[in-house]
């Protein structure tokens, strides 16, 4: 019974980690697109930055 519970727990952890990694990939893609749009949409003044870091 204990080995079965351990296998189920491991499967649950790996499924959760897989979902989290997939969510992080989507977040990374969205941030990359916003970053690239910032280069396209920046002011024509030359050194103007679209972000305030």
TrEMBL record:
<keyword id="KW-0472">Membrane</keyword>
<keyword id="KW-1133">Transmembrane helix</keyword>
<keyword id="KW-0812">Transmembrane</keyword>
<dbReference type="InterPro" id="IPR043727">
    <property type="entry name" value="Lmo0937-like"/>
</dbReference>
<protein>
    <submittedName>
        <fullName>DUF5670 family protein</fullName>
    </submittedName>
</protein>
<dbReference type="Pfam" id="PF18919">
    <property type="entry name" value="DUF5670"/>
</dbReference>
<feature type="transmembrane region" description="Helical">
    <location>
        <begin position="26"/>
        <end position="43"/>
    </location>
</feature>
